[in-house]
Amino acid sequence: MIQPVRVVVWLVEGTWQGCLDGAAHIIPPDAQVALLHVTPSDVGEITEASTAGLLGRAFRAHRPTGHFEDVADEEASEILKAAATRLGRESTELVHRRGRVEREVVNAVAQGVDLLVVARDGDRSRLGPHSLGHATRFIVDHAPCPVLLVWPDEAPGIESIPPPPGHHPPHGPHRESP
Amino acid sequence: MPSPIAETLAVMLLVATLACAVARPRGWPEAVFAVPAAVVLLVLGVLPLSQAGAEVRSLAPTIGFLAAVLVLADMCDRYGLFESAGTWMATGSRGRPVALLALVFAVASVVTAVLGLDATVLLLTPVVLTTVARLRLRAKPHAYACTHLANSASLLLPVSNLTNLLAFRASGLSFARFGAIMALPWLAAIAVEWVVLRRFFATELVGRGETKVATPLTIPVFASVVVALTLVGFFVASVLHVNPAFAALGGAVILAVPALVRRHAKVRDIGLALDVPFLTFVLALGLVVKGVSLHGLSSLVVHLVPNGTSLGSLLLVAVVAAVLANLINNLPAVLLLLPAAAAAGPGVVLAVLIGVNAGPNLTYVGSLATLLWRRVLRQRGEELPASEFLRLGVVTVPPVLVASTVALWASLRLVG
């Protein structure tokens, strides 16, 4: 019996709708789709670092700042539910993790996954760098499965790539000399 | 006691105090370690009573000022000022991440300048992070903006940072003059942070946030007006040669009394906001550092601090202060450098402040402390923060130091 193709779509704030739309017509209709969202743990660490820098204020600094992670978790499950509706397929698996984003995504596709779909980051008005954020770069470098990089919007035209340095565009169409 | 032994003992006690303040064995407040250290120095005669008395008298008004600002900031939180700033940023940005970052920059810079860096780190940052999460945008650039601006945007006023409060009296400047000279360096620091963060996080500032049913913006008018009047009060007091701490005290009392009467706050809450362990820690640390600088270290520091106001010497002062702040944390760094800096004039004091305020963005707790703190985190089984913090520090701190010091040099020539 042929196993259905297993596809994981990694959803990130800001690009998740485009990522889904870009992948929807590429994912085979009978594929088993899992939607993945990771709530970053390092945001809390950044703020903890800055409270640790406040020498002498430990007494007040233990005020709960975990509220962010609760809200982020809440929004993450909303995003996952909205994404499943947007994709409109039956039996879509929703996966919510918390931790170092790049590590969690790579771990999630470590076994039995045929395709990981990720969205391009960065400037969407032109083709070109820097198109991968830190986490996406790490995932593309480390994922042990094929990775599909999609444009979260319609990709801009090829003319958005600047000409190479010292290059002068030819006048009129280029012709081969006889 | 012979001076070399006294000096060694004082330095060891300072290092032990700082180490305990960061590692906080048994989770005790920092004062628990700093007070015995100061007492040991007094009992052994390393710090003579007369000198200790003079240090307490010189620190007491600063600590009173600090206490009033702590209560003022806490009251602003109780009146919902930070919450409404969050709503304002969410609606103002209309979900565009770069616009949101610009508003976070504006709010964090103003809050740090007027209510101090503690307010930005402890009260504003949680609000910013929740706002970003609700908008469904990536939180990291905004989190870094808050932590960085809490340090680098704390250059403007004496109330912006405890280091400034400590230097304020030593500098002999009036509140208004301090602000007038530091306005340009403050703007320069914010501008550099903006350019660097905007580029550093270009790949994260993408997409469009989702503005759902918006919370209506309600501005706590009473608290806003009191804070604005307190700010005016700082300058008026300085013109009338009254200690500006009274303006902070006035603001804190005017906000606290109605809150108490309407039972929005209990007396206990105000006690907590006052943070007596912190105030005690500052006093004890001041005494320990005094013990260190009495026995030879102060003459060493005098050699470290050049006393001209040429651009070259101001830059050197800022770099020395930044390095020291990164070695031992900025609070003891400013206490150590102040006597020599104050003797060299207000320009040098302000250059020290640029170093100790902007410098900590490099290693956030001072490298000695960072080492310890990382050990503590590892023991607790928590993950270590990403090397990203350090990478961002390397690209922001040097240009901030240079830009702010050049601005200070120009300011000293313009304002005089």
Note down, in words, how this protein is organized.
The complex is a heterodimer of chains A (178) and B (416). Chain A has 178 residues and is of the alpha/beta class. Chain A has one domain: HUPs (Rossmann fold), CATH 3.40.50. Chain A has six helices and five strands; from the N terminus they run βαβαααβαβαβ. In chain A, strands 3-2-1-4-5 form a five-stranded parallel β-sheet, sandwiched between helices. In chain A, β4 (115-119), α6 (134-142) and β5 form a beta-alpha-beta unit. The mean pLDDT of chain A is 86. With 416 residues, chain B is an all-alpha fold. Chain B has a domain at 1-46 and 280-293. In chain B, α1 crosses α13, α3 crosses α11 and α6 runs antiparallel to α7. Chain B is globular and about 70 Å long. Chain B starts with a helix and ends with a helix. The model of chain B has no long low-confidence stretch (mean pLDDT 90). At the A-B interface, α2, α3 and α4 of A face α1, α6, α7 and α13 of B.
Short structural summary:
Chain A has 178 residues and is α/β, with parallel strands linked by helices.
H/I helix tally of chain A: 6
Number of strands of chain B: 0
What is the residue-averaged pLDDT of chain A? 86
Helix-strand pattern of chain B: HHHHHHHHHHHHHHHHHH
Mean pLDDT of chain B: 90
Q: What CATH first level of chain A would be assigned?
A: Alpha Beta
Query: Over the alpha carbons, how many angstroms does the gyration radius of chain B reach?
Result: 21 Å
Q: Give the CA-CA distance, first to last residue of chain A.
A: 58 Å
Q: How many strands, what sense, and barrel or not for the largest sheet of chain B? A: none
- Unreliable residue runs of chain A: none
* Number of self-contained structural domains of chain A: 1
Q: What is the CA–CA distance across the termini of chain B?
A: 45 Å
